[in-house]
Amino acid sequence: MTRKPYKRPMSGWWKRDPFFVRYMWREATALGVLAYAIVLMTGVWRLAQGPEAFEGWLQALRSWPALVFHLLLLVAMVYHTISWFEIMPKTMPMMFVGGERVAATTITRVGMIAAAAALVLLLLAWMLKP
């Protein structure tokens, strides 16, 4: 009698564990980064084509579909940023300050604070532009 080897079912493997669901969502946000990189590269390309082409690109960015797209990307990037700083202490070498190991929560919090500060500075620069 010949036995068949056991094969684990692979379809939907990531849906079985909440850790892997979060992992897949985090990885999916990389597609948002790609999409925004394409938007920015298109802007550079249109700029190289002249002022009229660049102005057309700017007008396209002011449309409601573009604003919704940017809002969705903002949500994805906020999630990506939060998850990135949650992972950081697990992936980087141990840090020591004054002979004591820096806690993982400290590393995560400092990263979140730095990201929030960068966001506030960018928003202020945008609001105060001439």
Automatic annotation (TrEMBL):
Keyword Translocase among UniProt keywords: no
Chain segments annotated as transmembrane: 64-85, 106-128
Gene source species: Roseateles violae
InterPro entries: Fumarate_red_C (IPR003510), SQR/QFR_C/D (IPR034804)
Source taxonomy: Bacteria, Pseudomonadati, Pseudomonadota, Betaproteobacteria, Burkholderiales
UniProt KW keywords: Cell membrane, Membrane, Transmembrane, Transmembrane helix
Protein's name according to its UniProt entry: Fumarate reductase subunit C
Domain of life from the UniProt record: Bacteria
